[in-house]
Write a structure and sequence with these properties.
225 residues, alpha/beta, Rossmann fold, Arc Repressor Mutant, subunit A, 2 domains, five-stranded parallel beta sheet, four-stranded antiparallel beta sheet, 9 helices
Length: 225
């Protein structure tokens, strides 16, 4: 799956600009206009990085940042602050509290993407290099050809693994059976269906993430989808 970035800003225009810039560069973007809405998203689907405006309608971005950094569950999420030109004091305080970087508004899209990539490379290099695909409870290490559900390794046959990787790479889009059996030596649809049934059993608590798309094929979803 794509790297997930949560953008938090009370301006719909800024959120839309961030969405355009980030999605063009292959990121999966989630958006919130308040700290409360952002907290709900984080609980449902932990992001790989947060871009956080300092000025929010409910609490300040600095306070929200401080809350996240004190949380054992979310303290490892890298955070970039969005700050106005005249908010140097807030910017310094944010860095002291635990922000990884800051970007001054108005920002350049290329600069923002470069900052995002730099921080992700430092915090989780595998996610930037595409070596790990993740969705909800499922993570696949491409190079090592290993699969984990809730950090516990599970074991698939080579054909099953090829199918799972193809579904994960689709980023929650449905994949038709023809594509899946072309990836497995032109195996027939019934063989693919049998492989998927086996994959579901082996996924255990994450089995519901593997969905059937009637009349087409299959897809992997994140829990909140």
């Amino acid at each position: 799956m794509s790297v997930k970035v949560l953008t938090v800003d009370d301006s719909p225009e800024i959120l839309e600009l961030l969405r355009i810039v980030l999605t063009r560069n292959g990121y999966a973007v989630m958006a919130a206009e308040s700290a409360r809405a952002a907290a709900d998203i984080i609980r449902q689907q932990k992001p790989d990085l947060i871009i956080l405006d300092i000025m929010l309608p409910d609490i300040t971005g600095i306070s929200f940042l401080e809350t996240l950094k004190k949380s054992k569950q979310y303290c490892d999420i890298p955070i970039i602050l969005l700050t106005a030109k005249d908010k140097n004091t807030d910017m310094v305080r944010g860095l002291k509290v635990g922000a990884d970087d800051y970007i001054v508004k108005p920002f350049n899209g290329d600069v923002l993407v470069a900052r995002v990539e730099t921080i992700l490379r430092r915090c989780n290099p595998d996610s930037v290099n595409g070596k790990i695909l993740s969705a909800g409870q499922i993570a696949v290490h491409i190079e090592k050809r290993k699969i984990f559900v809730n950090s516990n390794e599970i074991f698939l046959t080579p054909s099953e693994l090829n199918i799972l990787i193809e579904l994960m790479r689709a980023n929650e889009r449905p994949v038709d059976r023809k594509t899946l059996y072309a990836e497995n030596g032109n195996s027939g649809a019934r063989v693919i269906d049998a492989h998927v049934t086996s994959i579901r059993k082996k996924l255990g608590p994450a089995r519901k993430q593997l969905r059937t798309v009637h009349g087409m094929g299959y897809k992997i979803i994140s829990p909140a989808s």
